[in-house]
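(Protein data)
===
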Amino acid sequence: MNWQLLPQFAVTGLLAGGPIALMALGLVLIFKSSYIFNFAQGQMMLVGTLVTWWLAVPMELPLGLAIVLALLFSALLGLLIERLALRPLTGQPLLTIILMTLALGQTLQGLALLLFGGSQRNFPQLFSAANPYKIVTPLVFNERNITIILKQNLVWSFVVAILLVVLVALFFQFTRTGLALRAASEDHELAQGIGLRINRIFGISWALAGVVATTGGILLATASGLDLSLSIVVLAAFPAVLLGGLDSIPGVIAGGLLIGLSQGVVSASSVPIIRSAAEITPYVVLLLVLMVRPQGLFGAKRVERI
């Protein structure tokens, strides 16, 4: 382990966990309302981010207006997916619905390639990339204090991502719509029995998932650029959401931060073969945690009487 670089990599990985938590939030939103694991989340993120780039660069709209319009587009895309692709499958086996999300993901990926091409693009900067923050730690190595250098765009992307996760959690906790979403997640038939419109609730959850996906894509693209491989980044969100708990929004934050931290720590290794294993580290951490706590760190443990 390179002990001099370990604090730098650990903090950088922890900050990278913010956008991961945001991507995981989109998966939790849909699962909480419909018990569907959405394998098209990464492609929804890609399409929303590409639309943001198209509005801001070729169309030359102000970046703020481009983001607002792209978020509205993403909400509409989520509503259309739920209405046209998933609602007709109501009552069908769960595997059929999951396969539909896989098909949707491949369709969206193909449309992105067809309409925008596969070239790398420079995404407009939301936050300054200059003047990084410097933190002098009390840790000493070779008689010198270790200094941690943090890029502004990485720090502010983390702040925005965590704030959005907290806002969604407050929305679920303190609004009538959020209460309806939570009620539907407990029992669909019972929720219908008390007058809740399940189809409307499903549509809202997919619209929120689209907005969250696009926001996460924008935060990632402003730091590392934009191409079709952006959709693959959501693979890090899968272990994060399972680690925190499929039905837990606070677990999303814990899972995302833990995944980011573990990747950063492994990346600080001085052994090349260990350092190259950073990409599979989230799944190793997930395996170890689920062996001890199958429902995840914050997931509810459900007991059914037979």
Notes: The longest helix spans residues 6-34. Residues 135 and 148 are 5 Å apart (CA to CA). The chain has one domain: 6-292. The longest strand covers residues 133-141.
